[in-house]
Amino acid sequence: MGYTSNEFNKQQTDSAAVISSGKEILLQAFNWESHKHDWWRNLERKVPDMAKSGFTSAWLPPPSNSLAPEGYLPQNLYSLNSSYGSEHLLKALLNKMKQYKVRAMADIVINHRVGTTQGHGGKYNRYDGIPLSWDERAVTSCTGGLGNKSTGDNFHGFPNIDHTQQFVRKDIINWLRWLRNSIGFQDFRFDFVRGYSAKYVKEYIENTKPIFSVGEYWDSCNYRGHYLEYNQ
């Protein structure tokens, strides 16, 4: 899974991806129920309206295979057949967005990753049989792995990725470049950036060069038990 430098440079200089006005209007182009509605196909029909309304970028839900249909419990990052639709439909959507000069923002969920097989301590902290076939060293010691201590907050209940590992960062950078160059995403939204040090976000951005990036970071939220309160 990779990219060529010529393809990457072409993506970088594509006039449809260049911010020229300095004014950005970002659309959240999904909600928590969107996976129930043939979303990639549904959204493709709305692209002309996005452009007409003045949106410069549309934040799309996580594109990868996920244990949860909303996309926030990823497992096989290179599999883009998700509850939102097939990889073919996703690429059709991104091509349509490019035609209308609305940049596609990928939701990058790299704080945690669901394992495929049991490893150290009987936990599902290995990724055998799929691309990025990491072992327990890729999982923080705080969440059942053999990696280092987390550099941020823990996302409880699932293996948290150890971004201090060079092999992990190399694989993530290659995956992000693949999303940028081969798939057609132009912007990145980093999920749960409280979970790992900001220096790693900086490294990922500098090595993959998205046109525009944002991160999900909150100071405090109200919960009812384990559930997040609405309307905050």
TrEMBL record:
Pfam families reported in the protein's UniProt record: Alpha-amylase
BP terms from Gene Ontology: carbohydrate metabolic process
InterPro entries: GH, GH13_cat_dom
Signal peptide: none
Domain of life from the UniProt record: Eukaryota
Domain annotation Glycosyl hydrolase family 13 catalytic: ranges: 24-232
Similarity comment: Belongs to the glycosyl hydrolase 13 family.
Protein's UniProt name: 1,4-alpha-D-glucan glucanohydrolase
